[in-house]
């Protein structure tokens, strides 16, 4: 995420639907053709990718934007559009969990998937997945 060009990001975690508290696995992959050396200063990136949320959005394409905070280079908000498995057009709005100074709070995002009427379909809790990035340093 930090030094890659073009921009790529992967987040993993879980989601719950509005009618069930059972957590299901989720993975969000994003990329942009825009080159970014150090995200920040309010920069907005157009992104595409996929959301894999078992039973809700199985490997569904997403598109939208990531907007980085002006004063915190790696803090970003997400606005992504997708069509879920049942055919509804939805938007995923997510932002850092925040609320504390811990690294975990700033490397995790919480978001709501809402349908066209604004009703919440699901709630996502995702964290940055650096495993692939770190694997290159270990091999």
Overview of this structure, please?
This protein is mainly β and 139 residues long. It has one domain: Lipocalin, CATH 2.40.128. The protein is built from 2 helices and 8 strands; from the N terminus they run ββββββαββα. The chain has helices at residues 103-106, 131-138; strands at 8-17, 20-31, 44-53, 57-68, 76-83, 89-96, 108-115, 120-128. It is globular, with a radius of gyration of 15 Å. The two termini are 19 Å apart.
Using brief descriptors, characterize the structure shown.
eight-stranded antiparallel β-barrel; Lipocalin; 139 residues; 2 helices; globular; 8 strands; mainly beta
From the alpha carbons, calculate the radius of gyration and give it in angstroms: 15 Å
CATH class: Mainly Beta
Shape: globular
> Helix/strand/pairing class, anyone?
mainly beta
What is the N-to-C order of secondary-structure elements (H for helix, E for strand)? EEEEEEHEEH
Structural domain count: 1
Q: What portion of the residues fall into strands of 2 or more residues?
A: over 45%
Helix share bin = under 10%
Provide the CATH architecture: Beta Barrel
Q: Kindly state the mean pLDDT as a whole number?
A: 83
Low-confidence stretches: none
The total of helices stands at 2
Strand order of the largest sheet: 1-2-3-4-5-6-7-8
N-C termini distance: 19 Å
């Amino acid at each position: 995420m930090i030094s890659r060009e073009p921009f790529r990001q992967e987040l993993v975690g879980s989601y719950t639907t509005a009618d069930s508290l059972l957590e299901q696995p989720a993975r969000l992959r994003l990329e942009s053709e825009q080159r970014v050396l150090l995200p920040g200063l309010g920069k907005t990136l157009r992104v595409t990718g996929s959301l894999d949320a078992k039973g809700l959005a199985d490997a569904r394409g997403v598109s939208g934007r990531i907007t980085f905070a002006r004063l915190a280079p790696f803090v970003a908000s997400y606005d992504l559009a997708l069509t879920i498995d049942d055919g509804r057009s939805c938007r995923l709005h997510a932002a850092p969990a925040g609320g504390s100074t811990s690294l975990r709070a700033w490397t995790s995002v919480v978001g709501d998937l809402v349908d066209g009427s604004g009703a919440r379909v699901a709630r996502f809790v995702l964290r940055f997945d650096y495993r692939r990035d770190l694997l290159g340093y270990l091999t």
